[in-house]
Amino acid sequence: MPPGMATAPQTPTDHPAILAEVEALGARIAAVRAAIGQIIFGQDEVIDQTLITLLSGGHALLVGVPGLGKSRLVETLGIVLGLATKRVQFTPDLMPADIIGSEVLDEADGRRAFRFVPGPVFCQLLMADEINRASPRTQSALLQSMQEQRVAVGGVEHDLPRPFHVLATQNPIEQEGTYPLPEAQLDRFLLEIDVRYPELAAERAMLLATTGSATARPMATLTADELMAAQALIRRVPVSESVLDAILALVRGARPETATEDAARRHVAWGPGPRAAQALMLATRARALLQGRLAPSIEDVAALARPVLRHRMALNFSARAEGIVLGDLIDRLVERLG
């Protein structure tokens, strides 16, 4: 299990110190959301799910057609959260060394020695733009960094800056010449975030705000140290037995081997592993804090079921032949939570 996903022992709900810290952090997060909202229009759910990912200490996969502000969102997050941000445009000819760095041979005073030149992965917020356009070899270069927050080059390990987050984008409509992400890499993403078209009012506000002589600029609202403190606080937020039971019921109910729902047994090819339950534990805490609540509820589990599960399970051939949609199946499992 990844070190960033382990859950801590539960804390009593009446702990006054945690309550005071949650209230103080809630005010800071509200300021963060307001700062992002001045730049990104009509994507409130996307913003919230991205903040949930970062507060949980994880990585996110942003899936949406071009032009919906995915790159702008990552750039804005880096500024607002005070994170050192870099961007990599994934292409078929991109090599692993272009991601993690490489060793170069230096000569000084008649002596030759290898020197490590860090790649763009050595940052706090990495945008992997159109990640499915790179070859599997290059995609796998991100695996160790996302999992262990370090890379190995020439037999030497190099620690990445803290915090370290990857926000990757993927275009769902242009699949020619792309390489689908393997299941092992998809599982590294805490959430798969669906980026949709904005509503009419939001798109109107966006046009007025972005096509004039002056445009708004994001302002730094949080620091990297404050973000890491928030991530530590998330792990201290209490989770009730009912929410814990709901998480286990949802994840185990999505596996054909342990499912009680007939549709899951017949239509799921492979289900989510324990990392999905860990992701739900952290993400529900972060969502509760984002909304100013001390402890998560079953409503939080239901709201996060799709972004946590849909990239961690797959339908079999018969389900696709019958026109079964994965999102609808997840919704049926959520309904059983009561």
Give a topology summary:
Elements: H1 16-37, H2 44-55, E1 60-63, H3 70-80, E2 85-89, H4 97-100, E3 101-108, E4 111-118, E5 125-129, H5 136-139, H6 141-148, E6 150-153, E7 156-159, E8 165-170, H7 183-186, E9 191-194, H8 200-210, H9 224-234, H10 241-253, H11 262-267, E10 268-270, H12 274-290, H13 298-309, E11 314-315, H14 317-321, H15 326-335
Parallel strand pairs: 1-8, 1-9, 2-5, 5-8
Antiparallel strand pairs: 3-4, 6-7, 10-11
Low-pLDDT windows of residues? 1-14
Q: Look at the helices and sheets and give the structural class.
A: alpha/beta
CATH class of the largest domain: Alpha Beta
Tell me the CATH architecture of the largest domain.
Answer: 3-Layer(aba) Sandwich
User: What level of helicity do the residues show?
Assistant: 40-55%
Shape: globular
Instruction: Enumerate the strands of the largest sheet in spatial order, edge to edge or round the barrel.
Output: 2-5-8-1-9
Q: What do we call the CATH topology of the largest domain?
A: Rossmann fold
User: Counting H and I runs of at least 4 residues, what is the number of helices?
Assistant: 15
Distance between the termini: 30 Å
The largest sheet is: 5 strands, parallel
Averaged pLDDT, please?
86
Number of strands: 11
Rg over CA atoms, rounded to whole Å, is: 21 Å
User: In percent terms, what proportion of residues is strand?
Assistant: 15-25%
Helix-strand pattern, N to C? HHEHEHEEEHHEEEHEHHHHEHHEHH
CATH homologous superfamily label of the largest domain: P-loop containing nucleotide triphosphate hydrolases
How many structural domains can be distinguished in the coordinates? 2
